[in-house]
Please model this.
Amino acid sequence: MDIELIEKILSCNSEEELIIQFKIIINRIGIQHFAYMHIPHCQDVETKVISDYNVNWISHYVENEYQHIDSTVALCNVATEPFTWEFSRKLIQQTAMQNNYWHEANEFHLKDGVSIAIPSSDSTTGFGFALQEGENSNIWLQIHRDTLKVLATVFYRQLNYLIESSRGTILTTDMSARELECAQWISLGLTAIQVAEKMKITERTVRFHLNQLKLKLNVKTKEQVIVMLAYHRLIQV
Model:
């Protein structure tokens, strides 16, 4: 994946700019529309939706609380990998209400697509991507799975960065020089064994540094570590 694409997202200074840049990038790989949803488990907090879907569909979706019957949302609660909408319909037995939901979505040209969950302990958070006409979601996902995971993570982290910046609540956590060096090597695509050789430490120590970074940054994957450190300009990508 082109590192410049990540840098373009991380350089966005507003939510509006982030959405525009994200749309340009995902259109290039066969995605027609996207929707980002953050559904807090606490009912006192509003659901956040960012999308370029038809505005009438978004209003209809929110007003009818379709997140409670949308099988892609249900699957985002447990999924660890991107999945096709077709897979969610096959995995979760569809009720008459859910069949009607997909019929209505189809009327807004939201028939075939993929979704990806963002790991979160206090919310259901993820993306829905409607593919361009003629794309086969299963084949598309085989080709673009890794790229999609990176783009979704970068968008999510940059969005949170912008929100925190506007509130003045960015948390700075001290990282050791060795932890940052480890992350820098990993960002270049090196394996734990290769990083250990570069740093002249054991593979176990590399994994320890990575786990410490996950704890300090409150993330779950090494990709999220890299994205988080990159947009805080603590490593170069």
Strands lie at 31-40, 48-51, 83-84, 113-118, 123-131.
